[in-house]
Design brief:
By secondary structure, this protein is of the alpha/beta class. It is built from 15 helices and nine strands. Helix 1 crosses helix 14 and helix 7 runs parallel beside helix 9.
Length: 305
Amino acid sequence: MNIQNALWLSPMEGVSDLGFRSVCVKRGADLTFTEMIRAEAILRNNKATTDLIDCYLEDVPTGLQLLVSKPDVLKQTLELITKKREEGELRYQNIRCIDLNFGCPSQDVISKGSGPALLKRRARMRELLTVLKQYSPVPCGIKIRLGLNAMEKKNKLYLGIIELVNELRLDWVTVHPKTADQDSMSPIDFQALKEIISIAKIPIIGNGFITDGPSAKKMFDLGCSGVMIARQAVINPWVFEEIRQYLKTGNTPLIKKDHLAALQEYEMIAEKYGTKEKYRQYHQKTFQDHSKGKLGYHSPTKNYP
């Protein structure tokens, strides 16, 4: 998997449906992801879950992000995905890569021993990543934070994870360089990110507060092979084009941004592929607000006024 100056769209709950991913790819995103999907629910063939695997368009490069804590569940899930790919099921055939989430700060996830709660469990992490590497039918990687809290960060358990990933030769690690107990506006730790990059033998994707060309360039200058962009892409899907041009020229281009035209693009795909109404309502509201100059971000998991 070639990862060089890569611009990735982050997996976002309630946001990352096919239509929105397509809008971002048309504006320069190299790779997108489904929102985080629970592997156990895939095995149960839970329709609400499998509907999230909406990789119907080959020209919208999409990775599947999984939440899983048990190696046997991961193995069965990867075998199922492989089987569906071999049977020719389009949305599984179009999965470009698989990512395991060890970064979600949700207390529901953490309380069940998943996500960043697993980072300190080295034996379990080894089991999971060994299964991932052995059974994934496509390139694979993980997303991490620096630990659950300041103590885990102080103990630098994140460096042990990078050593493990080096050994198993995963294809990338996305790093959100702060702890799971920090809120969304807490600053990221560039020093910890530099430490990670200094020992990594695989590409590192930087994540956190990437809003424009200069903030992306800072990540690349540190040694990141790519960056992952989340809420700024919701506010400004053209951010990928702007970053690309900035990296080439040192200047942010003047791009005509027609949010209502982007909404029309989104609606065409949402209608064709039966996107759930909650996604459509969220994107309709955000694109319409942004067309009026209300360039803020609102989480889809909270009430939208």
